[in-house]
Translation machinery-associated protein 16
Amino acid sequence: MAKTLEKTRKQIAKKKGGTIDALHAHSRNAKRLHKAQVRDERLDKIAESRRKQDKPLLRRVSHFREVVRENELKPLDLEAMRSKINEYVHQFDEEFDEIKKARRPGRPASAREDLLKMKITSLEKEQQDGFYIPDLTSEKNIQLLERWEGSWAFLSNLDWVKISGAGNLRPSNFPPQTN
């Protein structure tokens, strides 16, 4: 959270002898306070946008952490990883089919149906091109994944890989590069 407004308010109060109640509407200090408030709002908006953008990857990591826990913290081989990726990619299929069946004939698709369709197609495309996940073949990486507390910053400690639809595993960097 940005603190420019608090710092500016404190500086002005110090200069004015402890009170900032009697500022003229168009004074320099009022303009400084307004500018600081606008900056804080802009920074909060950018931070919220960033958190929203990072949420799908955080959900993915938590899903694969649960997969590792189900496997008793043992490394997975490539075929097991591919099957778990396939489960992850097709997690929305059932809900999509239910919504599609519930829709009356001749009616346009609902917003939720469109959203699920976009998610499914993007996940399937990523599965073919190279699915981005933490390396689950390494014991060291699995131990790090188990210690993960949910923060974005900790994810840079993990080793990452991309697994293509053909089954090729290649190392990757964090954060993922979006084109």
Q: What stands out?
A: DSSP finds six helices and three strands in the chain.
